[in-house]
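Justification of computing resources. Each target in the renewal requires a structure prediction run like the one illustrated here; the chain below, 250 residues long, is used simply to show the kind of job we budget for.
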Amino acid sequence: MDLNADLGEGFGRWSLTDDDALLEVVTSANVACGFHAGDPESVLAVCAAAARRGVAVGAHPSYRDLVGFGRRYVDASRSELVADVLYQLGALSGLAQAAGTRVSFVKPHGALYNTAAAGGAHGEAVVEAVRRFDPRLPLVVLAGSPLEELAQAEGLRTVAEAFADRGYTATGALVNRRLPGALVTDPAEVAERVVRLVTEGVVRSVDGDDVPVHAESVCVHGDSPGAVAVARAVRAALEAAGVAVRSAVL
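Resulting structure tokens:
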């Protein structure tokens, strides 16, 4: 099972995630590309640190929403969004190459991730941008989402993703961050959820139902409360359960 986290999400003098500590735990790093977070110097440093540890570097493109941390929907045209995603992929690719590594996958961020997951014009824009940039790059998608089918139809490899620390509805969708139950912060509870996800293929919804989820990668949000403790608990629990933790994209 692949374990990923969002990294490089500071900006200038402000830091949001403990990138060094998380890079000791995860196998794939979703690195900010500047549109929701991430200045060039810090992104270059994260790429270099990932390269030293053998962690896969992925592009984490966003809507152009630096103030809102990429968590607000932006009503961009399809052509504008294609160009914005391409711009971010190119920027991270250059920094990754300079750091001795490369972009190995793409995972949209925040509101773009959620909107693209439903397919539609913005899902099509993300797929088109990845295909035009490098059709060999895997696209990380919400497990069971319309985007998974859309990307595969366009010839892209997909990596189905589940979330360790996010609440799920009975339909398998993520609980809106503004609602109760959106985040799970207790390390032991998160670890137990992930082990069940990997070994049984289910996740407990906020309604108390077991929802089937098939995933190749599990995300721990780097900006969540106690992210490092959660990530460590998840990895330890997976290894204790006999699950090999390795990147799904290398």
